[in-house]
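subagent[fold] <- orchestrator: predict structure for attached chain, return tokens only, no commentary.
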Amino acid sequence: MRPLHLYGRDSDLSDTISGLLAQEGPEPPSQRRIAARLRTSPGTLAHEYGNRAGMLRRAAAVVAGDHDHDWYERARLAADRGGGLAALLPRTSEEWQHEVTWRTWCTVAVGRPAVAMALAAGHIGERRAVGGVLDIRSGGLEETAGHHAALVDLATAALVGLITRGTAPDVDTPWSPAGAAGQRLPGAEHLSLLARLEEQVREEVAS
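subagent[fold] -> orchestrator:
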């Protein structure tokens, strides 16, 4: 959930574009479409943001901040409860819907470097959360040097892959909001993979 002090014009813009993407698919809406949903004029938006590219960049920065905060909160709860990587998986419908929004924006970023750069903070937040959990579980991952960073990258990729699998619509069905929010939860074999990754990290740290 977004902290209250981060609500404002940019967050309104971001929520509006995210809502349109959820309804209509991952092709960014036109400036007129955005203005109509915000109940303002295209000229007003152009005065504040310049053009659609500027709107997408500013909106993406809000989404990235939301993503970073969401993963931070999950990592904090994992630390409080002594959970491992599996504790970073989305649990609530709100968390899953956020992940659907995030994956949609990652699709929007393809071929749009400014949007991709704006989303970078969210990707960094994912890795930071994974690294924090592994550090707690292994008893000092951050204090070790060298190739252990690669294990954090591997664990982050595995976890993000599982979440992406859960948010992606079935390839055999047309895109729809309901399909995008399919929420196919990871099975026992996937949770076992996360546990094996944690064990590998502990072994590497101990060696």
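orchestrator: received. Logging for downstream: Residues 11 and 62 are 6 Å apart (CA to CA). The chain has nine helices and no strands.
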